[in-house]
Amino acid sequence: MTTIALIACAASKLSHRAPAADLYTSQLFRKSQAFARQTCNRWFILSAKHYLLRPEEIVAPYNKTLNTMLRASRETWAGEVFAQLHPSLHSGDRITMLAGNRYREFLLPLLQREGYAVQVPLEGMRIGEQLQWLKRHTS
């Protein structure tokens, strides 16, 4: 059984191309990444523009968010993310989502429908609370 983390991208980015793990510079992204590295076997980034990113993929900065996308576009986005992620998943895998509601709303049901156990440890927390939780759960 493998635990996979899915981390939402962030608006705060470097000004140049970089591996996806380094591109996003927000404190929440950095702490989520540290948590994923310490507690999960693998992790991916949920990108509004690129769908699903492996941490080592080289990406240029961009300005796109699910928060401004129409519902139908968010549903399509979730379907594309699921299609990219599904080949990497195996029966019994657990998924930890470190992402806001817009990133979860259509992806979470797709994962659950396929029988994956999904945890959303930061659900319902404000940003400050999320940062505190992540700090407490990483070394």
Walk me through the structure.
Strand 3 (42-47) and strand 4 form a beta hairpin. This protein has one domain (3-136): Uracil-DNA glycosylase-like (Rossmann fold, 3-Layer(aba) Sandwich). It has helices at 20-23, 27-39, 71-85, 101-104, 107-113, 127-136; strands at 3-8, 18-19, 42-47, 51-53, 58-59, 94-98, 117-119. The mean pLDDT is 96. Helices cover 38% and strands 19% of the residues. It is built from six helices and seven strands; from the N terminus they run E-E-H-H-E-E-E-H-E-H-H-E-H. The protein has a five-stranded mixed β-sheet with strand order 4-3-1-6-7, sandwiched between helices. It has a two-stranded antiparallel ribbon with strand order 2-5. The protein is of the alpha/beta class and 139 residues long. Helix 2 (27-39) packs parallel to helix 6 (127-136). It is globular and about 40 Å long.
Short description:
The chain is α/β, with parallel strands linked by helices and 139 residues long.
Task: Please write the CATH class name.
Answer: Alpha Beta
**Shape designation:** globular
N- to C-terminal distance:
23 Å
On the 0-100 scale, what is the average pLDDT? 96
In percent, how much strand structure appears in the residues? 15-25%
In DSSP terms (H or I, runs of 4 or more residues), the helix count works out at 6
How many separate structural domains?
1
Report the strand count. 7
How would you write the strand order of the largest sheet? 4-3-1-6-7
| Major sheet summary line | 5 strands, mixed
Over the alpha carbons, how many angstroms does the gyration radius reach?
14 Å
- Detail the poorly predicted runs: none
What's the CATH topology label?
Rossmann fold
Helical content band: 25-40%
Overall CATH architecture? 3-Layer(aba) Sandwich
Order of helices and strands: EEHHEEEHEHHEH
Q: Could you give me the name of the CATH homologous superfamily?
A: Uracil-DNA glycosylase-like
